[in-house]
């Protein structure tokens, strides 16, 4: 894998991870809600104009372009598993920013993900 291909994949993963974190921050700002017929419009508008959610959607849009560029250079069987790195990133940042737990079992799963991504990356 070339340096440019790796950079594109990593950028796509980081943008995707950032999008998830921004969406979570946005839903935290909006608070718990249920979609019901009478609140679809008010909740939909609240979500649509929440800055974190708008930022998350922008990250997704840019990540799509970057990901298409990466897929033009790297086999999908190599590139797609790399998205799992986003889970590792998000687990640690969610622990720091949102106070989400990082139990031993979750850390073991993260270890398996890292080993799996390493094995897939070396398989090419």
Automatic annotation (TrEMBL):
Locations listed in the record: Cell membrane
Recorded GO MF terms: transmembrane transporter activity
Source organism of the structure: Oryzomicrobium terrae
Name of protein: EamA domain-containing protein
UniProt domain EamA: residue ranges: 56-121
SUPFAM superfamilies: Multidrug resistance efflux transporter EmrE (SSF103481)
One cellular component term from this protein's GO annotations in UniProt: plasma membrane
InterPro entries, sorted: EamA_dom, EmrE-like, Small_drug/metabolite_transptr
Annotated transmembrane regions: 53-71, 78-98, 104-121
Pfam families assigned to the protein according to its UniProt record, in alphabetical order: EamA
Keyword Ribonucleoprotein: no
Keywords: Cell inner membrane, Cell membrane, Lipid A biosynthesis, Lipid biosynthesis, Lipid metabolism, Lipopolysaccharide biosynthesis, Membrane, Transmembrane, Transmembrane helix
Membrane disposition: Multi-pass membrane protein
One GO term of the biological process aspect: lipopolysaccharide biosynthetic process
Gene3D superfamilies, per the entry: 1.10.3730.20
Main location group: membrane
Keyword Metal-binding assigned: no
PANTHER family: 4-AMINO-4-DEOXY-L-ARABINOSE-PHOSPHOUNDECAPRENOL FLIPPASE SUBUNIT ARNF-RELATED, SMR FAMILY PROTON-DEPENDENT DRUG EFFLUX TRANSPORTER SUGE
